[in-house]
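Below is how a single chain appears once it has passed through the pipeline. First comes the sequence as given, then the structure the pipeline wrote out for it. We keep one example in the README because the format questions we get most often are answered faster by looking than by reading.
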Amino acid sequence: MRAQFVLSEIGVGLRRNLTMTFAVIVSVALSLALFGGSLLMSDQVNTMKGYWYDKVNVTVYLCNKSDAKSDPACAKGAVTEDQKKQILADLEEMNVVEKVTYESQDEAYKHYKEQFGDSPLASSLTPDQMQESYRIKLKDPEKYQVIATAFGGRDGVQSVADQRSTLDNLFQLLNGMNWAARAVMALMLVVALMLIVNTVRVSAFSRRRETGIMRLVGASGFYIQAPFIMEAAVAGLIGGAVACAFLVTARYFLIDHGLALSEKLALIDFIGWDALLTKLPLILATSLLMPALAAFFALRKYLKV
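Resulting structure:
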């Protein structure tokens, strides 16, 4: 009987404040969709870092004849065969190095033509202007500085370049976008909490006569508060379900089908469905607990017994 009464009161409360209940559902759905999206964005950035950092190389560029005339780092002349052999031997002895690949001037020229063949500069370049290099695969991409310290400024070495640095700007942009999404999410959560508190207070005020009678007949505080807390929890849970549906739909149409970004952007290693599905229970739990706790604290002032 008591459970039936609580459930009936929940239905009454939701119908009486239909407009505000709808606003709560929408605000909770938007804030939790942003919350889930920011979590997935963090996972995506970490996945991309692992994918790309595992593929980038550290490159030791060697001095050529033209560098000897124009680059202070090559003031002692172009790299000699003995210097190349010594650099290679030192690289292969380093514990942080997994693999070393030599690229000749002809190979560098060929690769440049493949990548930038349409550039006006490409037509004026010759193979002897290109730099020989050692491309180094590290066991740990974070150990770039070890190579830079060991070979930077060495005779015959023009420069040491870390391809990872070209990706850092991209990841910084993605992280910045993620923090912006989190800021909007926090704002939406505040708005949702304020709506929940106001909705509960309006509902409690509209039913003050019923709650007064319940106080007189000796009903417990929890029994009086339960319908209001459940109303907020149900509205929040609906919002959470909408947020989950939105994330699943967005994942399906943006990545797998529709836009099919997984096919069009094959260079990006997108996170899988498992990453999304593990976030949904957290979103639903948050959508249930957040409104319930907000309603509980809001009612302490209005429904003291």
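The longest strand covers residues 97-103.

See the next section for the split statistics.
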